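Problem: given the chain below (250 residues), write out its structure.
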Amino acid sequence: MNDASVQRHDEHIGVVTLHRPPNNYFDTVLIDAVGSAYEELDATAWCRAIVLAAEGKHFCAGLDFSANPNQDIAALYRAALRLFAAPLPVVAAVQGAAVGGGFGLALSADFRIATPDSRFSANFAQLGFHHGFALSVTLPAVVGRQAAEDLLLTGRRIGGEEAVAIGLCDRLSDADDLLAHALDYAAELATAAPLAVRSIRATLRRGLVEQAELAMEHEYAEQMRLGGTADFREGVRSVAERRKARFTGA
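Solution.
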């Protein structure tokens, strides 16, 4: 099966599904596949809104540093720009965890539907690392600077109910109805005038691609700097060993 599939749900909704269960760890190949799926749907005459879903227990746990120590992050972020540039509105159905870069992937969508059991964490500081995937731009835009600073500096995890309360997510759903609720939200978008939706969305997101590109350039530089530190090595080890990290500031 492909890393990401494309299905036509009904007359005007396309569904893009990640197929790397249970955690849906990403790499450049997967992000490129999502970008290609968005572009494929945009090229059709029928699609007006997209639902981004994921197979398995978790929406996306980001990049698996232990399995991909040599991942070309710069190439990954170039692929991610395709998601920000896509002209159709996207509703993300977030089950389980959206962690690290997976949190950034969820925030690349216009809207997010969560369940009470959904978990969101920009856990980079807990790894001794710098955040990426343009979270410098997308997270403050959604929750405000203060809440964004709280989430990024602590790396704490929040559930679906808190995510809705702070504006990170737009609706809360029972786990069994998550995809159906995301499709219903997409249907609301798809029944509006399509030219107007595209135009309004383009106005609201004006400059976003450029901002995301600049943000990811800086984020990448900081990630490369911190990636050589003892704290980052300790952070990765602590996750693999399921223990609390012992950072030294070195």
